[in-house]
Design a protein that fits this description.
about 400 residues; Growth Hormone, Chain: A; globular
Length: about 400
């Protein structure tokens, strides 16, 4: 079923607001990334091992909230419109950062992470907004630009957060709260509603709970295949945040400066591709071939990462890996054309729930793989095994996408 009808087009600043919303959300999240583990450590008498276990629990709780609440917020946006959901989520995120800035104990900090997981689930509503206001043939390019906002936030956020945290470990939380409050005010003044009343759908718990929302992804053969390919891609992506620092330090002997430089290079290349490359590539190849190109590039990039015996050879894989960003924009554009306008929020909520499952599974999969293949029990020392596994997962996603779209 192709998408029915045309999206209601609000004033010109609306799409720009969604870009700024995601940029500020990612910037705020990036601000606290280098500080939160240290703050957790300070509550357990600087016991790094205990802090690592607690921080892992925080990450799992955050992903679980994304899984549970993404479809709920998506369904609420289909019923009441995108604007109130986005604005209330931004405001809730700002209050959450204030809570974490004042947190007197680990319990309050944990509550803050739970709230953050709930409010950050509104990103699925932001993607639904883009689907509302963008013609189907332009969605891949716009989703690519939105992807560039993710990259920019994660480049700038950790760098600024590290500097601010050196002054006061609570300061990044206050700055993140200020950004979220500013984002809420900006949206209140500028953001119009994108979903007209006649295209809204009643709220149903059957479709708003995570398992019910996933039913939508099984309603169409192509949507099912693309969602499965996306799932394997999302699992593969987790290898970077879960094992990259350990891998680079173990195999190449990199210090924190080199690791930071490499992460910044990854972010810059991703921004260039998603901000400037997705539109021309999709226009030239079409969404289907662009998706296959992106998945193949990601698989090759992970293979280079895992096989590279030296740091400079690892760096050669970064621009190859950056082309993977084309796949994300293409798959978003394809899937939004397979559901009705009043199901866009439900679609994005279900997709975000799938991504959350990947975020819960991936860390265990890749860290255990890394630990095994550098241990004495391994048949051969292969520190790059997690990245080779990620390459295989993306190869599987590529095969599924090809078989799904070949007709």
């Amino acid at each position: 079923m192709l998408e029915r009808g045309r999206a209601h087009v609000p004033r010109r600043g609306a799409a720009a607001f969604i870009f700024v919303t995601i940029l500020l959300d990612m910037l705020a999240l990036g601000l606290i990334l280098p500080i939160l583990p240290k703050l957790v450590e300070s509550f357990v008498d600087n016991d790094t091992a205990t802090a690592a276990r607690i921080f892992g629990l925080f990450g799992t709780a955050w992903a679980l909230m994304q899984f549970l609440f993404s479809p709920i917020l998506g369904a609420l946006s289909d019923r009441f419109g995108r604007r109130p959901v986005v604005l209330l989520s931004n405001f809730g995120l700002a209050l959450d950062y204030v809570l974490m800035a004042l947190a007197p104990s680990l319990v309050w900090l944990f509550i803050g992470r739970v709230i953050s997981g709930i409010t950050s689930a509104s990103i699925s509503t932001a993607f639904a907004y883009i689907a509302d206001v963008t013609p189907p043939e332009r969605r891949a390019a716009v989703f690519g630009k939105i992807g560039a906002a993710f990259g920019a936030g994660f480049i700038l956020g950790p760098a600024v957060g590290g500097l601010l945290g050196g002054m006061d470990p609570r300061l990044p939380f206050w700055i993140a709260a200020g950004l979220s409050f500013a984002n809420t005010l900006y949206g209140w003044l500028i953001l119009p509603e994108s979903l007209p009343l006649e295209r809204r759908a009643p709220f149903r718990w059957k479709s708003a709970n995570p398992l019910g929302a996933l039913h939508l992804l099984r309603s169409n053969r192509i949507l099912t295949g693309l969602s499965l390919a996306n799932f394997f891609g999302q699992v593969a992506h987790v290898v970077l945040p879960s094992t990259f620092v350990l891998y680079a330090t173990y195999r190449y002997g990199w210090d924190t400066t080199t690791v930071g430089f490499t992460l910044a290079l990854v972010g810059v290349c991703a921004m260039v591709v998603q901000g400037a490359g997705v539109g021309p590539i999709v226009k030239r190849l079409g969404e289907r071939r662009a998706l296959l190109l992106g998945l193949a590039s990601g698989a090759l990039g992970f293979f280079i990462y895992g096989a590279a015996p030296t740091g400079p050879l690892f760096w050669l894989g970064i621009p190859v890996m950056a082309l993977w960003g084309v796949a994300g924009a293409a798959i978003q554009a394809l899937t939004t054309q397979l559901v009705a306008p009043d199901q866009q929020g439900q679609l994005q909520g279900a997709t975000n729930s799938v991504n959350s499952i990947a975020q819960m599974l991936g860390p265990f999969l890749f860290t255990l793989t890394f630990a095994y293949f550098i241990s004495d029990q391994a048949p051969a020392k292969m520190p790059g095994a997690p990245f080779l596994l990620a390459a295989a997962l993306l190869g599987l996603g590529l095969l599924i996408a090809w078989r799904t779209l070949k007709k």
